[in-house]
Amino acid sequence: MASSPKLSPDPAALSGRRILVVEDEYFLADDISRALRSHGAEVAGPVGEIDDVFHMLTGGKNLDGAVLDVNVRSEMVFPIAQLLRARHVPFVFTTGYDKVSIAPEFHDVMLWEKPIDIEAMIRGLSGLVAAGDT
Q1: Mind giving me the DSSP string for the chain?
Q2: ω before 5 within 30° of 0 (cis)?
Q3: Which residues pair with 91 in a beta bridge?
Q4: pLDDT in tens, 51-105
Q5: What pLDDT, on the 0 to 100 scale, is given for residue 10?
Q6: What is the pLDDT at residue 2?
Q7: Which of 39, 47, 67, 88 has its CB 3.0 to 4.6 Å from that of 11, i.e. a possible disulfide?
Q8: Cα separation, 2 vs 83, whole angstroms
Q9: At how many degrees (to 10) do helices 78-86 and 50-57 cross?
Q10: How far apart are CA 13 and CA 43, in angstroms?
Q11: Angle at the Cα of 100 (from 19 to 1), degrees rounded to 5?
Q12: pLDDT above 60 for 113
């Protein structure tokens, strides 16, 4: 379940958008990626290693949004979240942990607890991406 999501009624807001997926659970990463593509998004990744995400982000391609697993192979994703926030890239978190595992600086970020409702998460991310256009 999400905490305080701003759900967009129009997941088509992701059409043509480049969305980063950081998830180390193969099947979930695949499910999220497929769902994003079904809404017209271009998926960057999925990426299952924090170091690989840093390399990808220095590659210069712009991102329009991101889905970040909080804990990726026992590494917290917060340095990536800080970088995305500095670049004004909207993102949501997914996690198998409690909300208390979220760094205080990110308590305002939408959180989707596993097992996640992928379509609801996409609506939430769509709302963030669309809000960034205004």
Answers
A1: -BSS----S-GGGGTT-EEEEE-SSHHHHHHHHHHHHHTTPEEEEEE--HHHHHHHHTT----SEEEEESEETTEESHHHHHHHHHTT--EEEEESS-GGGS-GGGTTS-EEESSP-HHHHHHHHHHHHHHHT-
A2: no
A3: 66
A4: 999 988 887 779 999 999 999 999 999 999 999 999 999 999 999 888 888 989 9
A5: 67
A6: 45
A7: 39
A8: 23
A9: 20
A10: 14
A11: 55
A12: yes
Query: Is the peptide bond preceding residue 79 cis, with omega within 30 degrees of 0?
Result: no
Percent of the chain with pLDDT over 70: 91
**pLDDT: is 129 or 7 the higher one?**
129
Domains of the chain, each with CATH number or no CATH: 13-132 (3.40.50.2300)
Q: Give the type of residue at 129.
A: V
pLDDT at site 101: 82
Nearest to 2 by CA among 129, 127, 105: 127
One-letter amino acid for residue 25 of the chain: E
> In the numeric block, which tokens belong to residue 60?
């210069």
